[in-house]
Design goal:
Layout: H1 4-24, H2 35-49, H3 57-65, H4 67-103, E1 109-111, E2 118-120, H5 121-136, H6 139-153, H7 158-163, H8 170-210, H9 216-234, H10 236-259
Antiparallel strand pairs: 1-2
Transmembrane segments: 12-29, 35-54, 66-92, 128-151, 171-204, 216-240
Pfam families: Bac_export_1
Subcellular location: Cell membrane; Bacterial flagellum basal body
Length: 262
């Protein structure tokens, strides 16, 4: 037991980190993947990483004094990495809501199969396309690799991490860049369609003044929906290309965040 004890404790630390990641990371979280599957993935990943994990002596000593706190700390690290990648999917959902409001689908909601919550139709479509890009780009495997790398890079936060302060720590600076990039990514994806629909609204306004007898309020909804779908279909390759670029940017930012963690 003296030999197995420390090794089992290290296994539980790595397991807590992976289970937290799979609970919030895109592609793994949500009701689309059963909890038992996430549990099994975390267990297998921890079993593979633990034998090669190089834990410092300071962590082994701290385990004897504050085991539960260190387990929670490992879970926080996994949550941090998963939420950082989740920002990108929030950007896609935000872009979809921009589309829906401009096209007249703001109150038309369907059940999103990923999150199991109701959201606008175009937002659900964007989420599904984003999930496709997420798996095709290999970001789902990179998330696991990034967490495995974080075990070596950041085995233990320690109290020195808290003493640095939030604003002085590089981790939070990269986290702020990722969260701020969410709005930039949403605008990049939504701006072409919103611009076209804005031109349609201006045109309809001019036509309503030129021909008051025409009921532009009723015609406007149908015209905006048709124009919105046509523009969306034409710009679909560009939107997907932008999604791939933003996925690569987020992966690079996440890698830099982990490297700057200490």
């Amino acid at each position: 037991m003296e030999i197995l004890g420390p090794q089992f404790q290290i296994f539980t630390l790595v397991f807590a980190r992976f289970l937290a990641l799979f609970s919030v990371a895109p592609g793994y979280s949500g009701d689309s993947l059963p909890f038992f599957s996430r549990f099994a993935l975390a267990f297998i990943s921890a079993a593979i990483i633990t034998p090669v994990a190089d834990m410092p002596d300071s962590l082994v000593r701290d385990l004897e004094r504050a085991y539960i706190l260190i387990v929670l700390e490992q879970a926080v690290i996994g949550l941090f990495i998963g939420i950082a990648m989740q920002f990108l999917f929030a950007a896609y959902q935000l872009a979809g809501e921009f589309f829906s409001v401009q096209m007249g689908f703001g109150i038309s909601e369907v059940l999103d199969p990923m999150s199991q919550v109701s959201m606008p139709v175009i937002g659900t479509l964007k989420n599904l396309v984003a999930l496709f890009v997420f798996f095709v780009s290999g970001a789902h495997t990179y998330l696991v690799q990034a967490l495995a790398f974080s075990v070596e890079r950041v085995p233990h936060l320690g109290f020195s991490f808290l003493k640095q302060g939030v604003l002085q720590n590089q981790l939070f600076k990269y986290f702020a860049l990722l969260s701020g990039g969410m709005f930039i990514a949403a605008l990049k994806i939504a701006l072409p369609v919103i611009g076209c629909l804005l031109l349609v609204s201006v045109t309809l306004g001019i036509m309503s003044k030129a021909a008051p007898q025409m009921n532009m309020l009723v015609l406007g909804f149908s015209i905006k929906i048709v124009v919105g779908f046509v523009v969306l279909a034409i710009l679909a390759p560009l939107i997907v290309q932008t999604m791939f670029a933003e996925m690569d940017r987020s992966v690079s930012m996440l890698d830099a965040m982990i490297k700057a963690w200490r």
